[in-house]
């Protein structure tokens, strides 16, 4: 495959200090030996260690959420400036688990995307339908709503600074992957929403996420509209993550 891919691991609430240490040593070797962009999004508490360990590596790193305010009385939250203290690059925004368990709304997603762009952080904006919407055939409306809402008030020149991730909820952590045709079709559609809004010339980076693993990575990642993967479970074992990256 000659296109450059983005292969980003999302640790979610997994790993610990003992497992992260050897993992990062392996990640540095893997990331420095590929032309693909490789990164991980870790729990906040590991950020100081991750930033120090990866500072001379090509591996990108980031976190899984951020508040949209600069500072204030928001117990338990983390601001963009705090992330920048550790030279963070990536921030997952609007993951379906945050939408589902923490009531993250389309409006909050939009505010977070704007804050990332203002601060020079790269948002990884997640969108994707639940099983009901897939089965009812209304998933394209959902995709349109989530993508359009995330981009409300965002200028054309910022699109290149955003990474999008189509993550159908029914495929996350279930072992049930979207077929490569389903993923291609949804991502092509999401890209066309962006072109309709900003003009045909606009290029957007869009990843697929949802039970991506070594056995299905090649087929999904060779699809023309898919620019990489956002990988949950399979990024936790370096052997699996490396095999996705190497192929
Ligand atoms: P899984 O790869 O475990 O299905 O998770 C995908 C995901 O949610 C990445 O953000």
Strand-helix topology:
Layout: E1 6-10, H1 17-32, E2 37-41, H2 47-53, E3 60-63, H3 80-84, E4 90-93, H4 96-101, H5 106-119, E5 122-127, H6 131-136, H7 139-150, E6 163-166, H8 180-198, E7 205-209, H9 214-221, E8 228-231, H10 238-246
Parallel strand pairs: 1-2, 1-8, 2-3, 3-4, 4-5, 5-6, 6-7, 7-8
Helix pairs in contact: 1-10, 7-8
Can you walk through the features of this model?
With 247 residues, the protein is of the alpha/beta class. The protein has one domain (6-246): Aldolase class I (TIM Barrel, Alpha-Beta Barrel), CATH 3.20.20. The protein has ten helices and eight strands. The protein has helices at 17-32, 47-53, 80-84, 96-101, 106-119, 131-136, 139-150, 180-198, 214-221, 238-246; strands spanning 6-10, 37-41, 60-63, 90-93, 122-127, 163-166, 205-209, 228-231. An eight-stranded parallel β-barrel has the order 1-2-3-4-5-6-7-8, surrounded by six helices. Helix 1 (17-32) links the parallel strand 1 (6-10) and strand 2. Helix 1 (17-32) runs parallel beside helix 10 (238-246). The longest helix is centred in the C-terminal third of the chain and has 19 residues, at 180-198. The radius of gyration is 17 Å and the shape is globular. Bound molecules: 1,3-dihydroxyacetonephosphate.
